[in-house]
Write a structure and sequence with these properties.
Length: 150
């Protein structure tokens, strides 16, 4: 289902049966996908391709337009003549944008921390190598300076 386009509703690789499906169910699913709500929904056998899918959800019953208010069955007792077609409002909800922003922010921060740690370790390695090399140079100089005296 794309925004503004009436499409066959596919969930977990299969279609959704219209038993107990309502406007609340349609709103909840559209919101779960990141849109404000449904524009419309219908059901039936409309496309030949429907028979290529199993039916994965049945009895999708929601008491509000939020997915948390929904119940459903994973063992359907219906045919493709009851498949749901759904059209969602094309404007993403603020909650969806916020979740995307949060995920992006977390990724950027994580990458930044990893890069920072790597740069710190490289700097520590350079300092260590510098001091080890310097120590060897000093000890070599001292050893060579003492050798003629022995």
């Amino acid at each position: 289902v794309d925004a503004g386009v009436l499409g066959l509703l596919i969930v977990n690789g299969g279609t959704v049966c219209d038993d107990s499906f309502s406007d609340y169910s349609a709103d909840a699913i559209c919101r779960k996908m990141g849109y404000n709500d449904k524009i419309c929904w219908t059901s039936g056998r409309k496309w030949d391709i429907q028979s290529n899918y199993g039916i994965t959800l049945d009895e999708v019953s929601c008491s509000s337009g939020e997915w948390s208010s929904c119940s459903y069955l994973l063992s359907p007792n219906c045919g493709h003549d009851e498949d749901v077609f759904l059209r969602c409002d094309g404007i993403e909800s603020d909650e969806s944008k916020s979740k995307k922003m949060s995920a992006t922010t977390i990724i950027v921060i994580t990458v930044g921390v990893i890069v920072g740690v790597i740069l710190f370790l490289i700097a520590v390695a350079h300092v260590y190598v510098y001091y080890v090399k310097r120590k060897k140079e000093k000890s070599t100089d001292c050893d060579s300076a003492l050798r003629p005296l022995l």
